[in-house]
Structures are given as C-alpha cells and as structure tokens.
UniProtKB/TrEMBL annotation, chains A, B, C, D, E, F:
Residues 40-123 form the Carboxymuconolactone decarboxylase-like domain. This is Carboxymuconolactone decarboxylase. One of its GO terms (molecular function) is peroxiredoxin activity. It comes from the Bacteria. SUPFAM superfamilies: AhpD-like (SSF69118). Pfam families: CMD.
Length: 139, 139, 139, 139, 139, 139
C-alpha cells in the first residue's frame, strides 16, 4: 500500500493522461481537454479517478475494461458517450466483430431497444473508420 | 446460414441446456427448471434464446460473456440475478479478483450505489464458496 | 372543461378512493392508509392524483391501465410495488395467463433479468391466491 | 409442444416477417432490413425472436402488445425507438387518444420527464400522419 | 386541511401558473403552452400537479427543489428536460458554480457518463446566457 | 491548484475519513470498514474519492449534498443505500420534514413507485430514531 499511498494528485493525473493517450491518442484526449476548459475540476476527476485510478489498474486489461464500459453504456442508454469508447475499444484491440457481439449479448440482458440504439452508434463509428465487419456468416 | 436456418426449437433448447450445464452444473440448471414448472414458455425462451442462441455463439468466450452479463446486471441494479452469474463466472474461469475488479470499474460508470449493492452480493457468494480474494494488496 | 375545473381536492380524493376500492377492495386500500398515517400529503397525492386523476380517466379501461402499470414497474425493476398491482390486475379482469404474457413480452424490451425478477413476484401472488396458470401448453 | 418444437429458425423468421409486415407494412419492415445489411445475426434475432416468437404469440393481441411496448420504451427513456412503435400502434388499431393516454398514465409511474420526452416524439409522428387528436375536451 | 381540501382544479392550475412564471418567466411558461395545444390534459397535470401542488409547497424552497429536479434528471439521463430546469435554477438563485457542483457530485452517484452528458447541456445553457463560471480554481 | 495537486492518496483518505465521521459518526463509518475488510481498494475509493474528494468540496454544504445524494438514490431505486444517507442527512441538519418533502418531490420526477419504495425506507429509519415527523398538516 505504501507507494500508492504516497501518490499525489498530480501523479494520478499524469498516470491518467498516459492511459488516456494509450486508449484514444492525443486527438481523442482532446475531448477531455474541452471539458477542462469549462469545468477543470470535473476534467481532473475524469482523468485522475477514471483513467488514472480505474483504467490504469491491473487485474483486468484494457480490452476487458472496454467490454465493461461499453456494456454499462449500452445498459444505461448512454449512447452519447459510446463513440468515444467504441473508438477506444478498437484502439486497444477489440475486433469489430467482438464489439457487435457485445451489442447482441446485451439485447438479452438490457433489452432490444437499448441494443438497437447502440447498434446505430457503432455502425456510425465503423463507417467513419471504414470498417466493414465480417458478420454476414453465422457463427 | 444454411445449418443454423434448419435448426429446430428442440435443437436450440438442447444446445441451451448443454451450455447452461457447462456454466452452472446440473444443480444450477435446476433454477431454470423451477421457472419451467410455473411458466414453461418463459423457461423455454431463457434456455433456447438466452443460453442456446446467445451464450452458445462464438466470437466471445464464456468468460467474456460473463463480464458482459455481470456488468449489465450491476448497471441496472438487478442484484437478485447476480448470485447465479457470479457462480457461473467463477465456474467458467473468471478469478474472484477479476469479479471484484468488474465491480470497482462499474463504480465509475454506473455510480457507487450500484457497485456497493453488487459488492454485498458478491461477498455472499464468495463466503458460500469459501473464497477469500487476494485483494488486500494494491495493484 | 367546466365541471372538471370546479372539482375540489376533496372530490378528487373521494373519486380516487372509489376507484381504489374498485381495484383492490377495502383491504387493499388500507396499504395507502398506512402511508397516510406516516405522511398524509403523500397519501393524498397517491389517491387524488394517481387513482382520482389518472386511473379514473376514460379512454383506457382499468385492464389496459394495469397492463401499463405492470409493464412500467417491470421495466424499472420496481418489484416491491408489483404485488399490489398484480392483485389489482386480477381483480379488474386480467387473466393469470395475460399477466404472465406481459412478463414474457417485457423480456424482449426490458431484458430477461427484469422479467425474471417480476416472474418471482407474480408466482408468489398467484400462490397466495391459489392460482395455477394454464401455461404449460404453447399458444 | 410438439409442433412448436419442430419449428426451424427459417420458419420462425418467416413467421416474424409476416407479423412485422402486418404491424408496419413492407416499408416499415425495411428498418430491420437496414440492420440486417450491417449485422445480419442481430436482424435475425429481432425478427425471429422479437416478432416471430413474442409478437406472434396468442393470449395478448397486437394492440395490447403495443401498449406494453410503448410503456416499456417510455419508462426506459428509449425515445429513439418510439416512432417505429407509435406507427405500429396506430396501424394495429390503437387510437391517437389511447396513445396519448398511455403517455399520461406513464407520467405517474415513470415520472413527468419521461412522459414529456415521449410526448414530443408522439406529436411528431402524429404530425407526419396528419393526425389531430381529439383531446381538448376533458374525459 | 380545510382550505386545501376546498381548493378547485382551476385554483390549483392558477397557483401552478404563478409558480411557473416565477421560475421561468412568461416566455419559459410558453413551453407548457405548446404541450397544451397538443394535449391539454397533460399540460393541465404538469401545471396543476407539478407546479401547483409540488413546487408551490413550503418546507423546501425553489432553490432546493431545483437541486432535486436537476439531480433526478441527471440520474435518469433525461438531458432533454435539463435546459428548462438549468434556466429555472439560475432564475431562482442557484449560482452557475452550484449547478456545476451538482453535476460533479452526481458523477459519484449516477456514474460519469450521466454527469458528462449533463455537463454538455449545462455548458450550452451557460453559453446562451453568456455565463462564464468561476470554476478554474480548485475549492 | 497547487496545494490540491500535491495532496497524496493518504491525505485524501484522511480527509475522507474526517468528513465521513462528521456525517455518520465513528459507528456509521464502520460500514465502510466492513467493505474494506473484503475489498480494500473499493473502500479506499469510497472514502478518498467519495467522501474525500466530493463531499469535502466547498460550493455546496453537506445538507445540500445529502439532498443530491438522496434524490439520486431514489431516482435509481437504490433503496439499499438509502438508510445510510437518511441517517447522514439527519446528522448534518436536514429535518425529517425536509427529507419527506424530497421523497414527495421525487414522485413527480422519478414516478410514484420509486417514491413509495423510498418512503418505506425513510419510515424505518425514522422509527429506529424515534422520530415522528410533523407532516399531518398541509403546507
């Protein structure tokens, strides 16, 4: 517990930025920058707590964490935050097919309306990245 | 699409039972049996659609699917259905530490109340299985 | 709009009590009485606004209104309020089979966890009323 | 259970398409077709499970099923999926006044914000269909 | 209880309009007028029950009531209704910094996605009112 | 930003414990201790982030923060976490009548089922503390 206890907020923030850039690149990290210009303390918590404390932890890797994040966003209908994390998921190594599979699995657990809403967003991100998923054939 | 198209409901059900037993054993599958005694068509859909169509698909393995399921249950506050899936998650190979990590990651996405509610349930399942998670040391 | 405009709160309350008793009998109405002993203004709103203004309206009958109520309760996971309305639904003429059918339809829209949670509650109410639904045969 | 057991996926799909066309016409069914071009397995589940298994069941008719669907969508705030089902509800025989009445009843159960959000969507669909509801007079 | 009991619907409505105008001015009240043109009974309930019965009560003042309303809207993801109440909150005396603080506190309770979604809306309302919050300095 | 930047995790934790004890006393803080025995990192985040970072901030006082917290818990149906915060709310100076008033206001925004579920919990906490609210007279 020692070294984590002595960690300062500045170091948590720095760790968060590093993870954030690993996930969405300098450009994607700019999204948080926009929040910071308006409400710096909120941006600080997103970076330090969200990316510095949660995403930077071990035990689960970034691919597993994006499965969790995308599932939670779909389940609560937070489609507005989905594009950021579909991009991040692809960047850390989830395949397009795995992302679609999360959406379909969620249909059973969060209901079809939430899954359909998510599918629209996923399809737009895929289009923006010129991705054509290989899903036409059944498993 | 051919072979999947010719699959009958009886075969979907059979496939579902097989996956269900792989996940929770004969004893766990009995939970669905209780539903079936009361409302057979509902039990049929849970087994055929849920376990036969969704969980039996490829692309994501059962460990990944339980990450999704547990996250969705935490996010919607469906603590009543959690014990079944914490058992299943342990059975298909998620470690106790990974399950706790899902709960902590969800605190940021679904809020602390949902995460605390889930932690209570997880702790009861661990106790029932004599599991002591190695979480005292920071990552 | 004339006569509705001149309606007093006392008359709205009276209308609500009448509808409430029609739905759950004198005994069921006592549930609201318990709330009234603790927080009278809340009980007043439940009776006058809920039962006096909403349930007493025309355009939809009490059976249709209970379909709406039960669906909304299932979708938001408010299982605690379900027994009251499963009783009411049976009292105003929904059959046990129709109530089960609402639960199954909701599985697709609100997800299976919410539907399974609701089914537990419905099964307890049916047991308390000695009801054995004729659902073993497929439609 | 016999005949339902021998039903194949192709037949479930066919049954779903038939119900879907009954509800929203060939043109409305095209919405699902768009999903199918992107993620065929998801479209298959929507048609076979949603429209083939759920909507095609007996016990509740299509008008009652749309009351359930619209209520569930309002309660979970899934306004994006509402236009499809307001159209379907009108097509299977719910009157404009009954649809508005569902929204108002939901105000008490899911809160006014969800009801107001839904009312916006309903009003747009009515406008698109040149419908002027006769709701100015109190019941 | 006497005087409240004798209150008519017309008087509840009048009381609601008065509170509504106090909160959002004549112009803001026009929003409800638009609903009234489409579905008068719904507008009546919003004004009489919402603003006449709830907001007009004592025990909590309008600033405290807007804290509750904004929190509930953030928690349920009802961002569409937020602008109306961010305007109202500013009108009844909450400072821009207090409103941002509600959003940040909600991040812990409803999760960061809901808080981020709300922050977007708040920032747009502030921009429309030429408000620059003094939040750059930590508390 | 300087001093906040140099704050260590140990200091955030210490600040959180101080706020926590101010809110619920040594005994109430023990609830978090129980979580800490099972999953220390989660307890650390609850104390450091929740009570150290959020509740310890200025701009809103503890009474206002408990209005937010209780509203968010009611809106998401997290009744399990309510007793802790009803106790805290009373400890930091909200009156029993103000707490009931939050519940009633939430009925309009989150729907009556959530408000009724919350009222049950509030009534149990009041009973445990021998509190009889003065709510029988209308405002």
């Amino acid at each position: 517990m020692g070294s984590e206890d002595r960690l300062t907020n500045a170091e948590r923030y720095e760790r968060g930025v590093k993870t954030l850039v690993e996930m969405v690149g300098e450009e994607g990290a700019q999204t948080i920058g926009n929040i910071g210009a308006f409400f710096p303390d909120m941006a600080h918590q997103i970076v330090s707590f969200g990316f510095g404390d949660l995403y930077s932890r071990k035990t689960l890797d970034l691919k597993q964490r994006e499965i969790i994040t995308i599932t939670s966003l779909i389940t609560q209908g937070a489609t507005e935050q989905l594009p950021f994390h579909v991009h991040a998921a692809l960047n850390v190594g989830l395949t397009p097919e795995e992302i679609l599979e999360i959406v379909l699995h969620c249909a059973g657990y969060a209901g079809f309306p939430k899954a359909c809403g998510a599918l629209n967003v996923v399809s737009e991100v895929f289009k923006a990245r010129n991705i054509t998923p290989v899903t036409a054939s059944k498993p």
